[in-house]
Design brief:
The complex is a heterodimer of chains A (159) and B (579). Chain A is of the alpha+beta class and 159 residues long. Chain A has helices spanning 12-18, 25-36, 41-51, 55-64, 84-88, 91-102, 144-158; strands at 76-81, 115-120, 132-134, 137-139. Chain A contains 7 helices and 4 strands; from the N terminus they run H-H-H-H-E-H-H-E-E-E-H. The radius of gyration of chain A is 18 Å and the shape is elongated. Chain B has 579 residues and is α/β, with parallel strands linked by helices. Classes of the chains: A alpha+beta (159), B alpha/beta (579).
Chain lengths: 159, 579
Amino acid sequence: MEKSKVDLSLLDGVLDEYAEVKGSLITILQHTQDIYGYLPKEAIELISERTGIATSEIMGVGTFYTQFRFEPVGKYLIMLCQGTACHVNSSELILQTIKDELDIEDGQTTEDGLFSLKCVACLGCCSLSPVMMINEDTYGSLTPDKTKKILKELREAAQ
Amino acid sequence: MRIVIGQGSCGIAAGAEKVRKALQNAGITADISVTGCIGMCWLEPIVDIYDDENKLTRLVKVSENDAEAIASFVDSGDISSVEKLVVSDEDSEFLSKQTRIALRNCGIINPEKIDAYIEADGYTALKKALSMTPEEVIDVIKTSGLAGRGGAGFPTWFKWNAARQSAGEEKYLICNADEGDPGAFMDRAVIESDPHNLIEGMLIGAYAIGAKHAVVYVRAEYPLAIKRLKNAIAQAEDKGIIGENIFGSGFSCDFTIKAGAGAFVCGEETALIESLEGHRGMPRLKPPFPAQSGFWRKPSNINNVETFANVAWIINNGGEAFAAMGTEGSKGTKVFAVTGKVKRSGLVEIPMGKTLRDVIFDIGGGMKTDKPFKAVQMGGPSGGCIPASLIDTVIDYKALGATGAIMGSGGMVVMDESTCMVGMAKFFLDFTAKESCGKCIHCRIGTKRMLEMLERITNGEGKEGDIELLEELCYSIKDGALCGLGQTAPNPVLTTIKYFRDEYEAHIKDKKCPAGECSALIEYKIITEKCVGCTRCAKNCPVNAISGTVKLPHVIDTDKCIKCGKCFQNCKFGAIVKE
């Protein structure tokens, strides 16, 4: 992404509130990701400047937790649950279906920028397994056909 | 009449919000409100209709298309329009066979209104506790025998007492709501369905240890839980239940929520504290224990959500009443998240001392597939698989520990014959290898090496002596790892070797996967007699490995086949088998 596209002024509010509060690094990073969809390099540099925490340490924290991303994601972020109940109820089939339909691997984004796929830890909706979340919505009791249908509908909705 | 819709995360995912909107648009005059998780997750969305005498009609698997039928029932009282939606007597037993303490308000009260909790005797236990001395409160908890519900089962009073005895004015009470065990969701359900119960339990705990600050560390993957907890805290602050001089007792306590960022190891209490302080969640060396030096190096006490959810009930009903339930060494009730291949999956709270059979078969209704029960996984990545032969094991910390599994936080994933146990061990090692924080060598490298061996075995490249080597590695990791994550990471491997050694041997010696799950070890075949020649399999095969003429039996070229299983999933005649 070009540097000019990251509007750092959006971070002012967050940094004014938390920069001086000790122990707030994770909170600041969460807000940053909410704003940009990922953690842009420029934002990390600004956070370092304002909090006095070294960029190396910020990266250390950012890479430790699965929530944080360092690349932009697509319009729809598919989070496929990898929990035990989903595993037992064949989530592997759903993963394969998504990979085939979108032609991407875990952690990648489709060329048109529409879908990103991320395998995540248990979403806690085990009774509906296999489960995925797309942005804020949860989809349960998935089958390969149902998954294809959901992806198709989202693709159509985006056009 | 009033209508209550179950809107926990599961309910909403199943379509409860759509149902609520449809009911509102159907012109129903009765009051429509929300409640949290009823626990009958396999029947979601659930709509409860109470008549003027508070008699309940429970409708299940409701869709937005049923709104008019429901409206007609509400108007006329004539049940015929919704008869097919009424929960069966058999399914109702799922709840009637339970004893609910931690979940007592879940799925009954409105989690977004503090008055609903107060009407259900909410905050009376806090008032009572504040009229006692902190030592008396700890004594009641000691009598109750309450033990930590997060996994380790450590006596709660002991931790409270240690934090109480610790020198220092500034202390912290922390709730671990970083429910990381895949397959467990009771903590999410408690926060989403009865957040004030958690707050009340925490305030009582804070008073007992002398803390003025309470912190809840919640998983970021639980947005609804965070939203409802925030709302509940704000309401409690408005009523003066959180803040300065609570109920005029002189006791003050503030509340903060911290969202976790996705790291299983943060379930370990010192790693959780590191994360709360904004660092990488890597465990600290113990001692010192958090009770002496925890959050910001101040005395801190950490308990899990379900533990706190029992506290208010214990204060109101007395430690003896809680201790009257359960076994010699395990008191009270425990909540289980029963999932997997079980017919009725959901939340089950029962007194300790019941058996696994009671939960899986009597309450859970047995298997949902036609395949026999094989094993139940308990305790997530720190636990193990308990085989069908031990189905009568009593639910008790010691008895479950003796099987090689653990009580854990209460995830119970039920498996049938189609689940490969070596594959299950691989699944958990893949998880722990990824989630290992990397601080100690035994865990960081040991889990990786175990995973590599399991991958080899499931790929048909197992060697004589692999099982023994795995066992040796398991024991050295158990001995050498720094924290609970590493020390328990070998459990899934050890228990599957202990109870399913023949499956490991089949993978290694015969290069076969008896469950038919490991793709490298199976072959797909078409049963000529069953194949009608519909060509569906051939059309779906990504590598053109299937040939045949229309209306005549097809054949799979096993040299070309990549074992993706697409033909197997797509065949409508059961003509394709895995061998």
